[in-house]
Design a protein that fits this description.
The chain contains two helices and three strands. It is α+β, with helices and mostly antiparallel strands. It has a three-stranded antiparallel β-sheet with strand order 1-2-3, covered by helices on one side. A hairpin with a 3-residue loop joins strand 2 and strand 3. The protein is elongated, with a radius of gyration of 23 Å. The protein starts with a helix and ends in a 19-residue tail after the last helix. The N terminus is likely disordered.
């Protein structure tokens, strides 16, 4: 991947990874809440259990996979299905 394409591919970025209480349906300790931004406006929020270093690595992997998927789909040539105009029938009466 070139520098230009890798810069274009970075649409997802980690906003934060912070220690948090367990999500409502979970129990246990050592939970972290992460926030990922898509193009700065949309966000993805999630919870992962583990130490900060492991959770940060996991979120970095999630972001890398999202960017790779986004880059792949954004570089696929789009096929345009042209529909020929309808032929009008001319009747000779």
């Amino acid at each position: 991947m070139t520098d230009e394409s890798s810069a274009m591919a970075r649409r997802y970025e980690i906003v934060s990874v912070r220690r948090a209480n367990p999500p409502p349906v979970e129990e246990g300790s050592n939970w972290h809440r992460y926030v990922i931004a898509f193009e700065g406006t949309n966000t993805i929020h999630g919870y992962i259990q583990g130490n900060l270093k492991a959770v940060t690595r996991a979120v970095e992997e999630i972001v890398a996979q999202l960017n790779e998927k986004h880059w792949r789909y954004s570089t696929i040539p789009r096929r345009v299905n042209r529909v020929p105009p309808l032929k009008t029938e001319t009747h000779k009466w």
